């Protein structure tokens, strides 16, 4: 059974076992490795008649998962209105559309405004989540983002730039928490990021700049707060990179363990052991 709905979570019709998939699906492509798309996302691609994708961010290998005769549109040069018109033209013809977004559609994309237009048009759609770069980077680094006694909070944010950030969410305010940080869309301004964080994090705090994580040309640039800006400049990284900050990224793992597998800790499935 599949429930087709809109951004308010309202089903387009009463769900039953015969409910068909929506004609429009927003699909998370993952960070780059074509094998990191979800099973559902791959299935939606295989069924699509039209795929609108971000050509500079979505690997071409993903398009090979589509059936013969599928129409492809690169959204890099398109406006919101143009992509919406293309979706609506296909829907009116009863065609299945996949709007393929890099990473996960919910994070630093433009899915909100597209869903709003579909809501206004009364067109039902679904969203298929994807693997975001922060999780792919943690996997490549063999790091855990939340380590007991080190950090139990992950803050996903970006530095203010062409797109403003609410003052209450400024990097200065978020840095005061001392939590693990995943900073998107900001590597071009690495010097300012470092200056801001240096007021709250020690100079030796580990920093990783993950460039095109999971792509064949990925770079995982390790450093510390006091030298990462120089390393980024030397590597010539200006875009397509994520900044990860925090003690959880130490190359020598801290000698800590969770309570979950501690024999002295009892929970609903295990008694405490001496």
UniProtKB/TrEMBL annotation:
Keywords: Cobalamin biosynthesis, Methyltransferase, S-adenosyl-L-methionine, Transferase
Family: Belongs to the precorrin methyltransferase family.
Protein name: Cobalt-precorrin 4 C11-methyltransferase
One Pfam family from the record: TP_methylase
Gene3D superfamilies in the cross-refs: Cobalt-precorrin-4 Transmethylase, Domain 1 (3.40.1010.10), Methyltransferase, Cobalt-precorrin-4 Transmethylase, Domain 2 (3.30.950.10)
Database matches in SUPFAM superfamilies: Tetrapyrrole methylase (SSF53790)
GO molecular function (one): precorrin-4 C11-methyltransferase activity
Domain Tetrapyrrole methylase positions: 24-228
Pathway listed: Cofactor biosynthesis; adenosylcobalamin biosynthesis
Source organism of this protein record: Desulfosoma caldarium
GO biological process: cobalamin biosynthetic process; methylation
Superkingdom in the source lineage: Bacteria
């Amino acid at each position: 059974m599949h429930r087709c709905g809109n951004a308010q979570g309202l089903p387009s019709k009463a769900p039953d076992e015969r409910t068909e998939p929506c004609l429009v699906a927003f699909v998370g492509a993952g960070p780059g490795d074509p094998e990191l798309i979800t099973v559902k996302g791959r299935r939606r691609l295989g069924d699509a008649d039209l795929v609108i994708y971000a050509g500079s961010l979505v690997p071409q290998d993903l398009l090979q998962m589509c059936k013969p005769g599928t129409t492809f549109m690169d959204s890099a040069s398109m406006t919101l209105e143009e992509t919406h018109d293309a979706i609506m033209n296909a829907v009116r013809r009863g065609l299945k559309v996949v709007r393929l977004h890099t990473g996960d559609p919910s994070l630093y994309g433009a899915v909100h405004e597209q869903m709003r237009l579909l809501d206004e048009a009364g067109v039902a759609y679904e969203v298929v989540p994807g693997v975001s770069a922060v999780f792919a980077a943690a996997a490549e680094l063999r790091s855990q983002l939340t380590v007991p006694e080190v950090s139990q909070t992950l803050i996903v944010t970006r530095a203010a730039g062409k797109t403003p950030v609410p003052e209450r969410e400024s990097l200065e305010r978020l840095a005061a928490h001392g939590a693990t940080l995943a900073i998107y869309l900001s590597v071009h301004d690495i010097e300012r990021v470092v200056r801001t964080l240096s007021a709250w994090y020690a100079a030796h705090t580990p920093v990783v700049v993950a460039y095109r994580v999971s792509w064949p040309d990925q770079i995982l640039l390790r450093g510390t707060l006091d030298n990462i800006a120089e390393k980024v400049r030397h590597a010539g990284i200006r875009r397509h990179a994520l900044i990860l900050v925090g003690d959880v990224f130490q190359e020598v793992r801290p000698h800590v363990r969770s309570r979950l597998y501690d024999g002295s800790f009892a929970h609903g499935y295990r008694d405490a052991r001496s």
